[in-house]
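Researcher: Go.
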Amino acid sequence: MTIATHTLTDGLNNFIFEVSADTCLIKFVNCFGAITETMQFTVAEGRKQWKLALDCGNKRGYTNPRRSEPSAFAVEMGETPLYVD
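Model: Structure:
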């Protein structure tokens, strides 16, 4: 049972900290929104990881996933983008 959820971002990737009574799960989310790795720590070690991540320049919050777009060359060759705003 998760008690609290906190997020950090480095501007490209995101880190989700899910804290329960005795464990802290850290989920690594890549720039496309996929969870690539999950690590389990004690709450005390999770706090150390949080502090280390902030000291390394990460910010509180979440960065929206990027959309995969074709290169300019691919568009010239006729490929259409998946997302059109």
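Model: Helices lie at 43-55, 72-76.
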